[in-house]
Predict the 3D structure of the following.
Amino acid sequence: MKRDYSQCMMTDYDIYLIDRSNSDEIVDDYFQNYVVFDNVKKEFFVEIDFQKEYHHMFGFIEQYDMMMNADIKSKLEKRYKPYPQGYLGFIEGENIKYYNILINSYNIEKYDFSRDSFYRSNPQYFKRPYLNVLSGHKVKLSYGEGILDFIYADFFSSCWDQYENFVCDPREDDYDSRYHNSESITVYNELQDKVELLYDFERTMHSVYKIVYSSIYTAICPPRFEKDFDPYVVIEWYADRLQVVQSEFLWLIEFCYDEDYLPEILGKMTPQERFHLFKKIHRHKLEKPRKEILSFVRTSAYDENDCDIEKKEAVEFAFKYDQTKFLRNSKLSLEELLDYTMSKREAVVKYAFSSVFELLELEFSKMLETNIRFKKCKRCGRYFVVKGNYNTNYCDRIENGSRYTCQELAATENYKAKLANNKALSIYNKYYKRYRARVKVNQIKEPDFKDWKLKALVKRNDCDNGTISPEEYETWNESYFPNRKKKETK
Ligand SMILES: [Zn+2]
């Protein structure tokens, strides 16, 4: 008899994972990305999926158009009408704007150069804007940098920005009937799914790009809203979900890495021990699988001009006279064999991931493997990674509307505070000298002077703390003993 587990009680951890996986409306695993970690340099490289773009999909779209029967096609064509060109021009403009922001904020480089060459050699296709401006790019981050960037991203503001400038999909004239249509769509084959999911992703990005591009992790793992979503509603759910994950990872960093968090209980524990305790408290499973992939990367390009000609000739010679059998058996062309033998390659361990949550967990697990330290910035109160032995209490973030980092601002602020301190001291010295001189000529009695001195020292402290201004301190000193000259003139 088949065993039915549908009534089986779920553990807290099962519920926790379900909350963080795909929902009926939002799917987080559309992009298939990879990440390579370097525990020595404490850096990682993220390769962002390049295959979910039109220039990689036109072949499938054409097959889809040919394969689907007329009846289904007419239904689907209604659903996926083409965008007007003017609208795509607007999207292209927005893309350029956000691409520039991302490129200027992170260490990003392009590795898939195929789009322009595709359109050059296939001029019959209309050039489409990128669906995600980071498709086919590589991002280099340091351990902790990605998590902090995500934690402090302002999804709330970008959600409102998205609402205020909500661009209604120009194709959706029957807006209401579409979104309240519970009719299901029959999927006949993989190809249909591939093409229609692309269309859904395109619509998703058009309605949510401002939120997606407000952190590097959301841009690396953009969402796909399910068919028949009402973007106006789902945008908020998406932003809400991101904010829940933000607060969770902020708490995790505080619990595992903040030396000032419950020092009497956690003070002597390492981040690994703290994380173990965290999992025990929350009844989470202690073991966490990671999708490790062994892969090969070319570390140097094969370049005819650069390559050692003698070596090439020697290899050719060897193949010609001695090893033609090897070449024949290997079923490789001479060019391929030369390429493989003469370019440098390395085996690397990659991790596959699709969702923001998976990438956060991967980075966190790598942080635990290495010795990463966080501190809370004494100026803005946000965590930052302590690099090397460099001891600072301030982060190097630049706040919105400022041109300077917290470190730079703190330096000038501390300098000003010091100047203020010096000011208080110099005011005190000035009056000390003046009143001491008056004691000598018996204008002020010794006990009165001592009285003034005690009060002046307390006030100097107030001035140092900023409780009173240097001007107020000066006035107080000036008027403490009535001025003789002024008295005389009266
Ligand atoms: Zn700061």
